Task: structure prediction
Amino acid sequence: MKLREKTKPVKIGNLSLGGNNTVLIQSMCDVKTSNIDEVIKEINACAKAGAALMRVSILDKEDAIAIKKIKEKTSIPLVGDIHFSDELALLAIENGIDKIRINPINTPKNKLISIIEKAKKHNVAIRIGLNEGSTTPEGKNITSIKGLVDLALKSVSFFESYKFYNIVISVKSSSPLKTIKIYEKLAKKTKYPLHIGVTESGFDDIGIIRSTIGLSKLLMDGIGNTIRVSLTKDPLLEVITAKRILHDLNLYPNYPTIISCPTCGRCEVDNLKEIAQNITKYLENNNINIKIAIMGCIVNGIGESKNADIGIAGANKKFIIFKNKKIIKTVEENYLYDELIKEINKLSILNK
Ligand code: SF4
Result:
């Protein structure tokens, strides 16, 4: 793993992005922003799960005005996603948005200038966010890596010419390999923080796999200051997936490590898959930073269990429970979940 690429720190509300800061997780609400109560619920659920900032769409005046009320009942910085309009950007800023995401391909220069001036006055950050699929108002789009990177850098120079430096950049593709090439190029040419992600990556496992391919290579090379896993699914799953990716790259330490065997014909218990799923949920929901091994028999069960804080290995319809490398008890399948939770809680209290 390389050291993080040095980037300029950028202020977004009470957060600092880039510089020496850890990689921040973000997601985006999937309901219209003027549905204030629903948006607040989503933001707070994602924040509780680990999102450092959340993006909302600003489609009309109702959305822009809603920011004020949403900010009263949420505590993480909000990013307003605005296309085509400077009026809505100005209104969102007046209502307390912390960062604006604009796409230079669909926002004319004169409108950009008014957004820049207002953002400067209110200390609001701007993400210059290009997507491979975005089109100009005339319907043209840029798809080459060079074309996208050049346009992003040209936009940065334009912002700098108006003495605006509170900039974050993203240039996303729906192809993980293209995403990697784009960001590698960008990282060589700019010191502004990068928001990385594979855009429109798909639903469930398809999106998770694509995002993991695109994000892992970049993060291992020290590229990327904030990530979004863009899934056709609940934003909460985006946050959980982002945490899992960062954790396995040693970039999100305070999180459970779960080892579980796939099971095979040797498995000596019936409910291993269910146990693995329920224990994972419990540890993730409660952010318990322990390593646990959930194994179907003693073939690899003893070794994995001894290498974990807590481990279980199936044996003749029962589970052997290991803790701190030692067998502490043997439990019937039906009582295993409750026993395990007891041991996990004891350990997590000791670790606090
Ligand atoms: S630990 Fe045992 S049950 Fe699990 S995959 Fe390995 S051999 Fe099969």
Q: What stands out?
A: Residues 261-264, 266-267, 295-297, 299-301 surround iron/sulfur cluster (CB under 6 Å).
